[in-house]
Each structure stands twice: as C-alpha cells, then as structure tokens.
Design goal:
Elements: H1 21-63, H2 68-74, H3 77-103, H4 113-125, H5 145-157, H6 163-179, H7 182-195, H8 197-205, H9 209-225, H10 231-242, H11 252-263, H12 265-289, H13 295-300, H14 313-332, H15 337-361, H16 373-388, H17 393-407
Helix pairs in contact: 1-8, 1-16, 3-7, 4-5, 5-10, 6-7, 6-9, 6-16, 9-10, 9-16, 10-12, 11-12, 11-14, 14-15, 15-16
Length: 408
C-alpha cells in the first residue's frame, strides 16, 4: 500500500501572522491538550487548580520549542523504539494496578464505558440485541454497532479496555510516518500522556474514547493514501469507525472533498458512499428493531439537555455543527487539511456544548469536556506537524525540482 502521499503538507501562509512557530505551537498544543482534560481537572482540583493547569500548559508550550529540539538530539533514533516499547509496558503496568480500583469506583466513581462494550459484544455473540441490557451503573449501551464490532477482538481477549493500547500503538506508528522521525513521534506520545490527563484517565478506566478517535483518524488517513485495490477495504473499516459515535460523521464532507481532489469526484463519492452504507447497514437494523429509540442515539445526543434554554437544541445544534463541517470542508480542504480541519470540525460541537452547559448551570460547567478526546489526536498531530515543519513527498519533489532548476 502507498501511504506517503497521504502525509499532510505544511500549513498555509495564513498562519504567518503569528510571530513565530513557537506561538503557534503554544496556541495549538495548549488548546488541543487543555480542552479535553478540563472536565477531569475541574473534577479533582477545582476551579483554581483548573486555572493553574491551563496556565501551566500554555506557559510550557510557549517556551517548549526552545529546548525540545535539544531533547530530540540527546536521544539516538535507535533508542526511540525501545523507549516507545518501555512506555507501552509502563502504561500496561499502570493499567493493571489501577484499573480494578477505578472499575470498583474507589477512585473517581468508576466508568462503565468498558462494561458497555463488553456486554454489548457478548449479547451480539449470543444472537441478541445488545441494546436491551444495562451496565453495572445502570446506563444503557452507548456505542453504536460499529464500535461493538471493532471492539469484538478485544472482548474475545478478555476486555474491551485492552484496545486503547492497540490504538495508541497505531497512533504512534502513524505519527512516526507523518513526522518522518521516531523521536518526534515519541515526544508527541509522551506529551499527550503528560499534558492531557484525560487520556490517562481513559486508559486506567478502560474508556473507549481514545480508541474511537484514533480508529477514525487511522482509517481516514489510510483512505487518502491507500492504493486503488485497498481503498474499498479501508472505506468499509472507516464506516465501522463512524458507526461508533455519531459525532464523527461530521468528517464526511471533509473526507469527500479530500478524496475528490486526490482521485476524482466519481471515485470519491463511491468510497464515501461505501463507508456511509456500512454505517447505515450496521445501524439501521437495530434502529428498526427498537422503534422507541436506539439507546446510542439517545445517550450520545448531549445537546438535548439544553432544550430548556434553547428550543430544539437537540436538533438545532447538530445541524449547525454539520453546516460548520461542510463550510470548513468546502472552503479550506486541501491535501494538508485532514488533521487540522478534522480537529476544528470535531472541536466545534464540544466548545458549543461547554458554553451552553455553563449558561444552563449558571457557573463554569466543564463536564462535557471529556468528549474532546474526539479531536485530541487530530489536533496534536496537526500542531506537531506544523511545529517540525514536515514536508510531504509532493513538497519534497517540488522543492528538489526548484533547486535543480536554479542550479541549472
């Protein structure tokens, strides 16, 4: 398969208004790392602790560009793979020690996202509808059928919580390919773990938000770079990843436009149609089986709670988010847009939800911030790519051609 052509180009000149790449890195990394973790930080350290966290992260990344290059120089390329493996082992040890405690609710009240996937997959394997059972916290099964199917191998291994380790490894490999440097990919992974505590919280509690986000990012990236014979397979997998949480369908216009510019409109519509058909094919049978409301749609519509302050918020806000996604795709999509525009599109409904939750509560309410994990990996890779000023294969060829023309 041919991946290199899928690499994002460097960012356009509209970012030149920032005085330095250091400022862009501080803004991009600060926003990307901070927003998804605000809810967890506020939960444990309160308002003043949250303010300190925000200032700490933005302050660090405002100066990080001055010494991260030196850190990179101290680590030989051949050591990076060993350090990455050691990081994974340490995370698994941490998971093994803390997961039983977190799952029992001793720390943080626990999470039933792993239990939802485990129960749902087991119900599917027994030939029963997975949406008629509830988790140990009494909640309905929230993931759509695509999430159950993608989680099936890990449930067969014993626990859906294991999938976070697999998808983090996949993200590391993609980052290495995009950044063309194992050390940079490792620094990015360490930064995510250190500065975005919601990621560690999700790993320790077995939450599936990181797995879902990385799966969508992976299949979108592969679809843009795969050879002709593999694209239908990747499109099928992307349809399953979309059919995990419904907010990721906001990426459909962006993916369609990127494919249109890469392989032509007819092929692009065919592939997006295949992915959308998979989404509908695995979801509609369960929706028809439960005409009173499929629990994932009811559970995942976080905007319905705002109907009291904004009429029909549960319908209006998704439509606004869809319009924003379409506008970003049509106005800004180019070969470098997947990570950058994907992050902005996925962040839009999260920011809107945080604003409305705060208005409704009459105080700063950051409880919905955890869902910002959906854009965490898109935004981190976009910003890091801009910082290291990665050139795509096409840019490298163009650069060499210009240099050859000047020398001749």
């Amino acid at each position: 398969m041919r991946w290199r052509s899928a690499l994002p180009w460097t960012f356009p000149q509209k970012w030149a208004g920032l005085r330095s790449r250091g400022e862009y890195m501080a803004l991009g990394m600060g926003f990307t790392f901070v927003v998804p973790s605000l809810g967890q930080v506020q939960k444990y350290v309160g308002m003043w602790g949250t303010l300190f966290y925000v200032l700490l992260v933005f302050g660090f990344w405002s100066v990080a560009h001055r010494f991260l290059r030196k850190v990179e120089a101290l680590v030989p390329e051949r050591w990076a793979w060993g350090l990455a493996l050691a990081t994974g082992l340490m995370l698994f040890v941490l998971f093994s020690a803390l997961y039983p405690i977190a799952d029992a609710g001793i720390i943080g009240g626990g999470s039933d996202r792993d239990d939802a996937l485990n129960l749902g997959v087991r119900e599917l394997l027994r030939g029963r509808c997975p949406y008629h059972v509830t988790t140990y916290l009494g909640n309905p099964i929230a993931p759509l059928p695509g999430g159950l199917l993608l989680s099936l191998p890990f449930v067969m291994l014993g626990n859906s919580a294991y999938q976070n380790f697999f998808w983090l490894a996949v993200f590391f490999l993609i980052a290495r390919e995009v950044l063309s440097d194992t050390r940079q990919a490792l620094l990015l992974l360490w930064s995510l773990l250190l500065f975005s505590p919601v990621l560690l919280q999700q790993i320790v509690t077995g939450g599936d938000l990181p797995a879902n986000s990385i799966a969508v990012l992976t299949f979108c990236w592969l679809l843009l770079g795969a050879s002709h014979r593999w694209r239908p397979v990747v499109a099928l997998l992307l349809g399953l990843a979309w059919a995990w949480r419904v907010n990721f369908v906001l990426l459909i216009p962006l993916v369609c436009v990127l494919l249109d510019r890469k392989i032509g409109r007819r092929s692009a519509l065919g592939l997006v149609g295949l992915a959308s058909g998979v989404f509908a094919g695995v979801t509609l049978p369960f929706a028809l089986h439960d005409p009173h409301g499929l629990s994932p749609f009811l559970m995942q519509n976080k905007f319905a709670r705002f109907d009291g302050i904004l009429a029909h918020a549960g319908l209006l806000l998704p439509l606004v988010a869809g319009g924003y996604a379409l506008a970003r795709a049509r106005a800004h999509a180019d070969a470098r847009a997947l990570f950058r525009e994907g992050a902005l599109i996925l962040a839009f409904p999260i920011i809107g939800g945080l604003i409305l939750a705060t208005v409704q509560a009459g105080r700063l309410d950051l409880s919905l911030a955890d869902y910002g994990v959906s854009f965490l990996f898109f935004g981190a890779l976009a910003t890091w790519t801009r910082w290291v000023h990665v050139l795509s294969l096409e840019e490298r060829i163009a650069f060499e051609e210009r240099r050859s023309a000047r020398t001749s």
